[in-house]
Structures are given as C-alpha cells and as structure tokens.
Amino acid sequence: MKRYRIGEISRLSGLTLRTIRYYGELGLLSEARSKGGQRYYTDEDLVYLKRIIELKSLGFSLEEIEKIIRLRSEDKSGNKRRTELLTQYRSKLSQDIERMKSLQSHIDELNWHIKQLEGAEDGFKSCPGSLCVSCEHKTKCIFFREA
Q: CA-CA distance, 133 to 22, in Å (whole number)?
C-alpha cells in the first residue's frame, strides 16, 4: 500500500495541511506515524478525504460525517455505514425538495407581483383593477375585493 506524507495527501486531495490535521484531530482521518514521528497516510485515507469532501459538498456537517466514519469501528463490512449514508442521503434529498418547493413558491409570488405592477395603470399606488377578477392569485391577494 502506498504511503503519502501530509504534503502529498494535501496536494492529491486539494485540502490544506491545516484541514487535514484538523480532520485527524476530530477522528475523521486516521494517521500513522513513521519511526521518526512523521505523519503518513494511505490510499484508504485519500478515499476518506475525498468522501469527506463529497459529503461536505452535499451539505453534511462534520458532525454528521464523523457519525458515519465512526461506524467503521463497529462494522468492518461497511454495511452500517452504507445504511446510514442511504438514510442521510434520503433525508437531505427530502429537505432539498422541500426547500425547492418553497423557493418555487417564492419565485411564483415574485412573478405575480411583477405582472401585477406591470398591469397597474398608475404604478405602485393602486391595485391593477380589472385584472383582479381573472387573476389566478386573487384568493391570496391583499388588494382583491369582490365587486
């Protein structure tokens, strides 16, 4: 198995030396030491660093990542980590779908306000008037009044 010094693993992962040391302190990354006390890392460590980078890019906190990585001591097969990752991915996906729905609702609201202001005869001071009767948003419009 190939061994990398901290500078090499930094270059290969794109992470700073400080970040790699920090991940080691958190227990996210195991580090071995040579007889002279020099830190070195393996191909497996590089995979773990890339996994951490990937999970962070997907919105995982270091605490969530640590929980997943710590499962390696409980289950050498990796099945617990796989199951936990699937659970976390599904949870993140659900959260993102909800955020996307909320954002789409916000976009629709802004578009409606743009149309409303573009249709108003005297701009900001009044309701668009005749447009209100046929407006698809009249049930939520604070300006709409039944005639």
A: 62
pTM attached to this predicted model: 0.71
The number of beta carbons lying within 10 Å of the beta carbon of residue 9 is 23
Q: Model confidence over 49-59: pLDDT tens digits?
A: 999 999 999 99
The DSSP letter of residue 100 is H
Mean pLDDT of 57-83: 90
Domain ranges of the chain: 1-60, 74-147
Q: Does domain 1-60 have CATH number 3.30.750.24?
A: no
38 HSE (CA, 13 A, CB side): 11
Q: Is 134 helix (H, G, I), strand (E, B) or coil?
A: helix
Residues 127 and 120 sit within 8 Å (Cβ to Cβ): yes
For residue 5, list its beta bridge partners.
40
- Looking at the DSSP bridge assignments, the partners of residue 94 are none
Band of the pLDDT at 64, cuts 50, 70, 90? very high
